[in-house]
Structures are given as C-alpha cells and as structure tokens.
Amino acid sequence: MSAKVESNVSLKPYNSFGIEATARHFAQATSDDEVRQLLAYAATEDLPALVIGGGSNLLLTQDVTALVIRMSSSGIRLLSDDGQRVVVEAEAGEPWHPFVQWTLEQGLVGLENLSLIPGTVGAAPMQNIGAYGVEIKDIFAGLTALDRQTGDLRDFSLEECGFAYRDSHFKRNPGRWIILRVRFVLSRVAPLHLDYGPVRQRLAERGIEQPTAKDVSETICSIRREKLPDPAELGNAGSFFKNPVISAVLADRIREQHPGLVAYPQLDGEMKLAAGWLIEQAGWKGYRDGDAGVHRLQALVLVNYGQATGEQLHALARKIQDDILERFGVELEMEPNLY
Ligand code: FAD
Ligand code: NAP
C-alpha cells in the first residue's frame, strides 16, 4: 500500500477551529488508488472511515476512533474550451481559493464571488458552498464520486447532486460518497454578479467602473478579511448556523415585535432570515465563556480563543439555539459537521 497510515495523530492542524482531538488512525490520500487502498485497510481492520478535506467545516467533539482519510489529491485541467464556455476539472484535494485564483488567471469568469472560502474542491459540493449571491450550483458541470457501498465510480450531473441552500445529496447521505473530482462550467464572457451587499460600492470606491472578475475577487477578499476572523489567528469554522428560511407569515409576526428584522424574500415566497442579526439582537455578539465565544464583529461565527474543546463550543451553540427559539420562535440549524 502506497498510502501511509499513522497512529495517534493530532487533528489540531487539520481543523480550522484548532480543536485538540486525536485520530487513532490517520492517512492522506493522493489518488483514487490510495482512497481505495485506505478503504480496504479500514475494512480489514474493522474501522469506520472519516473523509476530510481542509477541516474548515468540522466540529470535533471527541477523539476520532475511525481511520481519518484526508483528501490530498491534486490536479487541475481544462476539459473543453469553445472560446466562450470552458469546462474545468479539479481533484478533490486541491485547496479551494488557489483553485479559484487559477481560474481567474486563465481569464475565466464564474468563481470570483466564491473567493477566499477555506477548504478543498472536493468538499465544496457537500454544502453547495455559497457567498455574495453565488453558489457552486450556478457554475457546476458535474463530479465523480466513489460509492463506498459498492466500490463503483459514479458521475453526478447537476440535477443528481440535489443542491439546495447550503445542502446537497451528499450532505443528506453522509459517509456514502467520496467526492474525487469536480467540474465547473466557466465563461470568458459571462456577466459579473455585483449586486450583493457592498460589492458594487466597494468597487466604485476603488475607482473601478468596468470591473473584471479579478477586480471582483480582490474586492470580495478585502471585505472578507475585514469582517471574518482568519482561522490561522483565531479558530473558527465560518458561519456556525445556517440562515433559517421560514414562512412569510412567521416573518411578519416576528417583524411586528422586531421592526428591524433582516429578511430576504425567496423565490418560493418564503423568507430567509439573517441568523447573525437574530443572534446579535439576542445579545450574544462578543460573548465569551472560557475559550469558547461568539466573534465580536460577526455574531454568526463561533470562535476558539485557544483551548476550547469541541464539546464547549457545541454547548455554547446549543445555548444560542435555545435562546433564539425562545425569543423569536425560530430554529437555528448548525452548519458545520459534528463528530
Ligand atoms: P471539511 O471541513 O474537511 O469537511 C466538510 C464535510 O465534508 C465533512 O462532513 C467531510 O466528511 C466531508 N468531505 C470533505 N471532503 C470530502 C470529499 N472529498 N468527499 C466526500 N466528503 C467530503 N462556506 C460557504 O459555503 N461559504 C462561505 O463563504 C464560507 N466561508 C468560510 C469562512 C471561514 C473563515 C471558514 C473557516 C469557513 C467558511 N465556510 C464557508 C465553510 C467551509 O469553508 C466550506 O464549507 C468548505 O467547503 C469546507 O471544505 P473543507 O475541505 O474544509 O471540508
Ligand atoms: P452579510 O453580507 O453581512 O449579510 C448577512 C446575511 O444576509 C448573509 O448571511 C446573507 O445570506 C444575507 N444577505 C445579505 N445580502 C443579501 C442579498 N442581497 N440577497 C440575499 N441575501 C442577502 O454576510 P457576511 O456574513 O458578511 O457574509 C458574506 C457572504 O459570505 C454571505 O453570502 C455568506 O453566506 C458568506 N459567508 C459564508 C460563511 C459560511 O461559513 N457559510 C462564512 C462567511 C461568509 P447568505 O448567507 O445566504 O448569502
């Protein structure tokens, strides 16, 4: 077997919360063959297997007895280019943001609003990553995954991935599929998405009237650096809760008592509430209990000031969920994957 299985490996460098947890068995998979070898090893040793990428959407609440397989495959290729539409494929272990930058260097439009999201290409379809008005479903061309039940490879089309708001077929069927590579359909001519939040205004402030995709990416990177804690300096997993989507009737009822409610109408008539606003109104912004806290600038982000355990962060999350349910009658769902 070419992949090397190590014992009792600290997962602290492998999760963006910086939580200290130990993997009893740990290996990096750099190819499809190594993924298969490691799954065969896990079966022989009667171990479950946990696949991770960059660990930026994980909350580790205990040591992991499974074989942790970190996807470390690399490779980016152009599959087709008709001068306007370009299909690009990247291996699961490719880090997301450098991949986005690579597409921008090729003059391709499509991924710029998704700049500076941590993690890997292979994990991006798990929750249909999204930011600044774009989700990967908008530029998704397909993916190849290994079915852990049968050992077969399968290609998934856009429809088959069942993408929804921060959700997918893969997230709804945890542990079944290992995403090996993902394809995106990008463009040399597509229009840019500038209408979300402060993007257009920030471009204007930089004196840019005819922005390129690279300009948009740089602007979004600078907004994100101002608002979000860098996991290298302060452990976090980005937004800890999904923005709840509720009925317009319930949104109206909440607005009667909270006229400042931040809510965005959805195509189906429901309303998406800004979870960060609810948490801030409830007074949690900047809260700290030991080393577990709520970020002082962004109430949606839970942070680890150093030695917080996953259980402490989880306990804080549950307190916030209970409080928001009591105050607003709204259930907050956790976004990171809990282990
Ligand atoms: P991991 O955390 O390693 O894994 C996440 C889940 O996917 C786990 O369940 C894991 O088992 C599974 N998984 C990982 N790789 C594979 C694979 N190849 N095949 C099958 N299953 C797999 N998310 C957004 O949507 N938008 C944002 O704007 C955003 N901003 C963020 C900002 C910060 C500062 C941070 C820390 C996080 C942010 N996130 C955001 C969340 C996170 O970065 C994304 O969800 C990212 O796609 C997770 O990738 P990862 O490789 O780190 O996944
Ligand atoms: P923000 O701009 O302060 O906006 C707060 C919330 O309002 C966002 O969550 C966003 O929902 C919603 N919103 C704002 N403008 C909207 C519009 N024009 N139409 C529909 N919804 C709108 O948010 P932020 O925290 O700084 O994040 C900026 C973007 O990066 C958001 O898209 C956010 O999802 C993404 N982000 C995600 C994570 C993560 O871990 N998932 C972490 C950091 C940032 P949406 O979230 O649905 O866009």
From TrEMBL:
- Lineage, top-rank taxon, reads Bacteria
Question: Which residues does the UniProt record annotate as the domain FAD-binding PCMH-type?
Answer: 17-189
Its pathway is: Cell wall biogenesis; peptidoglycan biosynthesis
Q: Does the keyword Repressor apply?
A: no
Write one Pfam family the protein is assigned to: FAD_binding_4
Q: Which GO terms describe its cellular component?
A: cytosol
Cofactor names from the entry are: FAD
Question: Which biological process, per GO, is one annotated for this protein?
Answer: cell wall organization
The leader peptide range reads: none
- Spell out the subcellular localization from the entry: Cytoplasm
SUPFAM superfamilies, per database record: FAD-binding/transporter-associated domain-like, Uridine diphospho-N-Acetylenolpyruvylglucosamine reductase, MurB, C-terminal domain
Task: Give the main location.
Answer: cytoplasm
What is a single molecular function from GO for this protein? Answer: FAD binding
Q: What are the record keywords, sorted?
A: Cell cycle, Cell division, Cell shape, Cell wall biogenesis/degradation, Cytoplasm, FAD, Flavoprotein, NADP, Oxidoreductase, Peptidoglycan synthesis
Q: What is its EC number?
A: 1.3.1.98
List of catalytic residues: 166, 239 (proton donor), 335
Task: Check the record and name the Gene3D superfamilies matching this protein.
Answer: 3.30.465.10, UDP-N-acetylenolpyruvoylglucosamine reductase, C-terminal domain (3.90.78.10), Uridine Diphospho-n-acetylenolpyruvylglucosamine Reductase, domain 2 (3.30.43.10)
Record InterPro entries: FAD-bd_PCMH (IPR016166), FAD-bd_PCMH-like_sf (IPR036318), FAD-bd_PCMH_sub1 (IPR016167), FAD-bd_PCMH_sub2 (IPR016169), MurB (IPR003170), MurB_C (IPR011601), MurB_C_sf (IPR036635), Oxid_FAD_bind_N (IPR006094)
Top enzyme class: oxidoreductase
Q: Which reaction does it catalyse?
A: UDP-N-acetyl-alpha-D-muramate + NADP(+) = UDP-N-acetyl-3-O-(1-carboxyvinyl)-alpha-D-glucosamine + NADPH + H(+)
Q: What does this protein do?
A: Cell wall formation.
Give the family this protein belongs to, as stated in its UniProt record. Belongs to the MurB family.
What is the protein name stated in its UniProt record? UDP-N-acetylenolpyruvoylglucosamine reductase
- Lineage summary: Bacteria, Pseudomonadati, Pseudomonadota, Gammaproteobacteria, Pseudomonadales
Protein encoded by which gene = murB
